């Protein structure tokens, strides 16, 4: 007995010895690698007891690569969360967790669950019921991948300490194609990446794989992301050569058990670049044959290859327009090659061609609306949420609702190209929600962007949503722990856009940081307010595109005299003695005409335009009275800038109030980032206010601290090595 | 009691739950981040018991940042290794581990240890003795940093399960300046880096620091490395601007407690590039003033700044030669600015100027020997181990021993630019040892390179050694776990070049992999043979510089027709119908004349030239009889290539025989890399043999498998995205 006690004491101390509290520097603790799948021992002893009773054994039916993934995840997760892995069994037992499909399990087949009927290939059911006479918790689906999604859902319930009694969960994703887009280059540079370099080590593939590839797959499967576009939309044709297809194939094989398909961005001129053809004209028979052969080559290696993502005739990329052909002709060329194999084309609508004189925000609509109905069945048009380029705030793109016959796929940006790189705490869930819940009025009230995107508004046969990834080789994947939540919320909304982003934030905080109520309420509050805070210190009241030139780092409202007018900042804010803002109303370039009524009319007049979009749609004098506060425009602008910067300090104080409740390394990482964010928010504030003041010629309101530097000093700052440059 | 038992059982299971054996995929296990400082529980229970008795408490005297580092390391290490951290106490106790200096501890002061007298600022003593009447293990030094070095030495003894009884260890580094050189650019690209990107996140410094910075410092302190040159020798002047000095300062502050000084590579034209001066002429008074001011600016921030590393008038870098001045004048300009602050100049001798017609391997000697004695006191000349460029095998540089009045500093390459990037298992200890133990005969027999470098041969007042780092952001730091050993052996040899690299390999294996005797003997055997194996499949018999052009990836003996002859491969092997090899003997370009007798005479004739350098010094016919085997040259060449490739397969088998003894993730990582190495060794073999065969016009010996591809296929391979390109 004495000896047993001594041994246990030894082990107890071993456990304690590993804890960061035991005399180690602040560099120990949760480094963020485990994302929201930490699976640490739950803090509530009662919960642990209850869960252990409810899951006294695990029966995973079937014998595929995916069922192995399910078993591994349950083992890993439950041994961590509950301190003890329930035993794996080979049959349904009392209080078992049962996972399977009608084809892998006779018990499930015989249960003949009606819920399964409408669930397709990815949906799942989680039920507390009797199976073969025994009370179990059942995760059932039509496929093993559906069962995997159900498994992660169940684990989320446990991670967030929710009850497992009387479960009746039926889930089915609302959108079909739910993909990450990696703007990763072959040299491992990530365009607009701020979290290290590309996680794909092309040089060492296919023979060398990293744990990170597996953990990437797990993380994505846990939020229902079912595809990944591996390479930059500014594509490199080399990716389609055999040497690189070997590497792509290795990744596809690795991801397949997790329900993740691999896609590639392609360069439209590939037939010429790597095929030795004289043209890439979509109507040329040799070009058609080349793509047919190339696609067959791919599918011989990767039978479930997802398809192609295409950026064409945009920012210098080649495309069908180079041959006098339309976007539809270009897309259909690829679509026809992919169709026999079940692949899709995601054709980007991010265009603002040189030849037209239209205001930039109008061009995508102008170019694509006339093509509605001309795309073949396996083509989706992929358009950014707003009509310019991922600004802190934009109205939704007028293309949403404008193409009843063509699936319109949402492209969100998860990486923070215009929102502070990886040192600003910004939860993008509120931005995504704002975009998805916008009413297009395409078919009257309630024609939300979400219903366009999920295909239900126009009864499209396929739907999609893409997120430009914020993932890199940084240990914590995203450069900032809180920014992991943007990857998370993208996945959760892609699965079900009716979830509220407040609820999703709550989930994420519980899983990633702590179930402690003080932590949950404080951090979710920070997250829910963060986007508006950043809008305020960067681009309040509908301002947009006033960042540093090229690298997009820091403020640059003075940027002018570039190759194209619509690459400058002055083009977008049009600040002058007379006022500020872009007149997109009928008295200006009339971009509002692309929206349906009543938006078209609401946006037409400043008085009925939502304040947050005021300067997006209107050029207003400095003394324009802002309705909500009664201040004149100049004062309101200044107030917003100063409020934003002050709110970052407040957010930092909120975070620091949690020091005792948080893991020390998670705490420290975010604390350091908030220090930077405070400095940069003040920098944005001071640079923009000082610059705009040269036009307004009005003073700062009383009591507002003077800027730290002169305008010239702000304008002279150079950052040649800011990360993520295009 | 029952409850206690249950709690302990719970905790026991928690400990077990964290172990990778508990149902998790192969992506769990030791990822290599902890390097040779894993500090896992020792496997030998008896050792643990004994160490715990011998170290029943710890008394670290003093109250500096360094003593905090010492306490943290001891806490971290001993709680891991022994399962229990001995308690920290505030006075000498029986069986205590006592760490301190005469100034921090009266007990140590009163012990009046004579050993401390000659130990300078970095040496240390470890003694089992009675201190103030109590038996202790004492680590004493003249400074806290010396005590830190002693602490790591003691920990190494425990990690390698060596006895702590009757210790009488006196250590003092033989070389003063022991630095890593990072060829890291400001955009985080690492020139010749194959382990991810630069670990310095310049964009987020100074406010954001990573655990990796601290762990870098710990790892270097553990092997006595006392300085780091942060940036590429192809320098960027921006590093000297205030914005970047903020960041450099943050790193210097972070490293200081670990005894690590920060140095910078500088661009000689900085006065013009960032100073706005019209010239960078070292004799110009405004230039002198500019450097004086700039150095003062640096020392105001970093009082113990190490100094500058300079690549000048080499491969396009600016230098004093641009103004008609000598290397000495250039170096002295900087030296004089640094001298008042205690800084040094490390001036690189890697030159092969365009204007001269001399054979490349002669140029450094020609340019620098005449300048001997002309450099000011705080200048070291830094020269690569061999006279060309870090080839798998080179003779030592004739500059070693040629400059009695000027300290000659060794530059080794740790990163594997010419030795397989980060997928070939090559222990460079044997290469370093070969270089250091080479006899220059500068002052007769026994005038080893080591004695030149450590300053003892010529009684220089300062000495140095540099290693071009193989570190990057890869989780395992070096891209391949075994390649961590090269960082390790560099440090150990820099501290004491009289250690054998076999002993160092033994240390490293025990600390990093396992103390299991099968593992130790097998892996050290692999390591000790690995360099020669790689020489055989890449560049046997003294061949050199026949790699792929630009990226240096894979074989490229056919490379010709470049801007400079001495950038090609054909220049170095000179293969023709008549034979192969570079005649550097008196019948050729007579590079041998730069060596002292009797080397000069030995290298002059093929019969007395060591076989491993045969084709370095001689051009020989294909039927030349190789003495050691009696084969003719062609057959011997082919045999070496095939033997090398076969030996990689044998090495892989050796590794696979250890699967049950090794951590699964360490095992798996190296297993994957060995798969790649086998393929690449065969590729080198086949490409080189096929190519040289076009000249020898002789068949392969019987039984040797035919090459996989044709020569044309080998020559047509392109790797535009091979990592680490310059």
TrEMBL record, chains A, B:
Gene3D superfamilies: Alpha-glucuronidase, C-terminal domain, Chitobiase/beta-hexosaminidase domain 2-like, Glycosidases. Residues 158-477 form the Glycosyl hydrolase family 67 catalytic domain. It comes from the Bacteria. Its EC number is 3.2.1.131. It holds the Pfam family Glyco_hydro_67C. GO terms for biological process: glucuronoxylan catabolic process. InterPro entries: A-glucoronidase_C_sf, GH, Glyco_hydro_67_aGlcAse, Glyco_hydro_67_aGlcAse_N, Glyco_hydro_67_C, Glyco_hydro_67_cat, Hex-like_dom2. One of its GO terms (molecular function) is xylan alpha-1,2-glucuronosidase activity. Residues 478-704 form the Glycosyl hydrolase family 67 C-terminal domain. It is an enzyme of class 3 (hydrolase). The active site is at 315 (proton donor), 389 (proton acceptor), 417 (proton acceptor). The keyword Cell membrane does not apply. It catalyses: Hydrolysis of (1->2)-alpha-D-(4-O-methyl)glucuronosyl links in the main chain of hardwood xylans. PANTHER family: ALPHA-GLUCURONIDASE A. Belongs to the glycosyl hydrolase 67 family. Homodimer. This is Xylan alpha-1,2-glucuronidase. It comes from Teredinibacter turnerae (strain ATCC 39867 / T7901).
């Amino acid at each position: 007995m004495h000896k047993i006690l001594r041994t246990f004491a030894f082990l107890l101390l071993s456990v304690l010895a590993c804890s960061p509290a035991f005399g180690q520097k602040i560099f120990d603790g949760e480094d963020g690698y485990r994302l929201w799948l930490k699976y640490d021992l739950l803090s509530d002893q009662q919960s642990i007891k209850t869960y252990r009773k409810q899951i006294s054994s695990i029966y995973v039916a079937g014998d595929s690569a995916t069922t192995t993934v399910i078993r591994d995840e349950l083992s890993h997760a439950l041994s961590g969360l509950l301190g003890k892995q329930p035993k794996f069994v080979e049959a349904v037992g009392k209080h078992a967790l049962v996972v399977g499909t009608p084809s892998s399990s006779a018990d499930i087949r015989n249960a003949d669950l009606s819920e399964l009927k409408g669930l397709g290939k990815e949906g799942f059911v989680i039920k507390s019921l009797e199976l073969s006479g025994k009370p179990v918790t059942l995760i059932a689906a039509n496929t093993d991948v559906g069962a995997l999604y159900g498994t992660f859902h169940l684990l989320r319930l446990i991670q967030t300490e929710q009850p497992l009694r009387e479960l009746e969960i039926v889930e089915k994703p609302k959108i079909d194609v739910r993909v990450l887009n990696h703007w990763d280059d072959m040299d491992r540079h990530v365009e607009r990446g701020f979290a290290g370099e590309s996680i794909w080590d092309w040089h060492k593939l296919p023979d060398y794989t990293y744990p990170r590839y597996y953990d990437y797959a797990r993380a994505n499967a846990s939020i229902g992301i079912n595809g990944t576009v591996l390479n930059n939309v500014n594509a490199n044709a080399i990716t389609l050569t055999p040497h690189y297809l070997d590497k792509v194939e290795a990744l596809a094989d690795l991801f397949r058990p997790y329900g993740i398909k691999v896609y590639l961005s392609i360069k439209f001129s590939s037939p010429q670049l790597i095929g030795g053809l004289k043209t890439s004209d979509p109507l040329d028979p040799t070009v058609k044959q080349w793509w047919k052969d190339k696609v067959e080559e791919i599918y011989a290696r990767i039978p479930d290859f997802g398809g192609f993502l295409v950026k064409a005739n945009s920012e210098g990329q080649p495309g069908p327009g180079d041959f006098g052909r339309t976007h539809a002709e270009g897309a259909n060329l690829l679509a026809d090659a992919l169709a026999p194999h079940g692949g899709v084309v995601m054709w980007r609508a991010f265009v603002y061609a040189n030849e037209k004189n239209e205001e930039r925000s109008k061009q995508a609509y102008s170019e694509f609306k006339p093509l509605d109905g001309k795309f073949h069945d396996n083509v989706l048009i992929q358009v950014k949420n707003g009509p310019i380029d991922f600004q802190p705030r934009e109205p939704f793109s007028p293309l949403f609702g404008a193409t009843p016959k063509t699936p319109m796929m949402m492209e969100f940006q998860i990486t923070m190209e215009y929102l502070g790189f990886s040192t600003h705490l910004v939860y993008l869930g509120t931005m995504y929600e704002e975009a998805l819940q916008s009413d297009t009025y395409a078919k009257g009230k309630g024609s939300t962007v979400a219903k366009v995107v999920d295909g239900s508004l126009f009864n499209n046969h396929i739907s999609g949503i893409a997120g430009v990834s914020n993932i890199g080789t940084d240990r914590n994947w995203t450069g900032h722990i809180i920014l992991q939540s943007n990857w998370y919320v993208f996945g959760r909304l892609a699965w079900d856009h009716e979830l509220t982003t407040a609820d999703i934030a709550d989930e994420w905080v519980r899983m990633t940081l702590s179930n402690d109520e003080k932590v949950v309420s404080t951090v979710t509050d920070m997250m829910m307010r963060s986007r508006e805070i950043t809008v305020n210190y960067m681009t309040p009241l509908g301002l947009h595109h006033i960042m540093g030139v090229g690298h997009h780092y820091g403020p640059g409202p003075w940027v002018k005299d570039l190759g194209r007018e619509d690459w400058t900042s002055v083009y977008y804010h049009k600040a002058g003695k007379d006022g500020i803002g872009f007149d997109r109303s009928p008295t200006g370039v009339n971009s509002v005409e692309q929206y349906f009524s009543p938006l078209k009319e609401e946006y037409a007049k400043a008085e009925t335009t939502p304040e947050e979009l005021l300067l997006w749609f209107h050029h207003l004098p400095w003394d324009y009275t802002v309705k909500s506060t009664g201040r004149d425009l100049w004062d309101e602008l200044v107030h917003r800038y100063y409020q934003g910067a002050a709110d970052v300090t407040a957010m930092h104080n909120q975070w620091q109030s949690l020091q005792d409740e948080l893991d020390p390394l998670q705490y420290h990482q975010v604390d350091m980032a908030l220090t930077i964010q405070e400095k940069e928010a003040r920098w944005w504030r001071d640079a923009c206010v000082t610059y705009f003041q040269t036009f307004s010629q009005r003073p700062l309101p009383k009591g507002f601290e003077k800027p730290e530097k002169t305008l010239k000093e702000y304008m002279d700052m150079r950052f040649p090595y800011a990360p993520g440059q295009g």
